[in-house]
Write a structure and sequence with these properties.
It is built from one helix and six strands, in the order ββββββα. By secondary structure, the protein is mainly beta. The longest helix has 11 residues. The N and C termini lie far apart (51 Å).
Length: 118
């Protein structure tokens, strides 16, 4: 005779460690999303945010900038202090040529596409 023991996994907010959570729907892949009732953070357990180290800084106020819009050929960043600071920055994508293109294809083979925070 075997006895199965069920262990209850306690999910806590990654920002404030609160246990006061609300199930807040699912993401496209089917994973459960949660909303913290204390600080308002939305999260998926076991998935950390992807933070870009190449995030530009605002030329006007010095704050960080967030990706605002991605269009074919360029990305538009907006100041984190918007609407106080109305600075936008357009960054053109650098074309990949020659042997660099081949090495990039080899390194990305078999990987899933990278998702960026919105």
């Amino acid at each position: 005779m075997t006895v199965e023991v069920m262990v209850e996994e306690r999910i806590a907010c990654p920002r404030c460690a609160s246990l006061a959570l609300y199930r807040f729907g699912h993401v496209r892949s089917g994973l459960q999303r949660y909303l913290c009732l204390m600080c308002g953070r939305q999260f998926i357990p076991g998935h950390e945010r992807i933070v870009s180290l190449l995030r530009p800084t605002c030329r006007t106020c010095g704050a960080g900038m967030h990706r605002f819009k991605k269009v074919t050929g360029y990305t538009v960043f907006r100041c984190a202090r918007y609407p106080v600071c109305h600075t936008y920055l357009r960054v053109l994508e650098r074309p990949v040529v020659g042997s660099e293109k081949e090495s990039l294809k080899e390194s990305l083979e078999g990987r899933s596409p990278t998702r960026f925070p919105h």
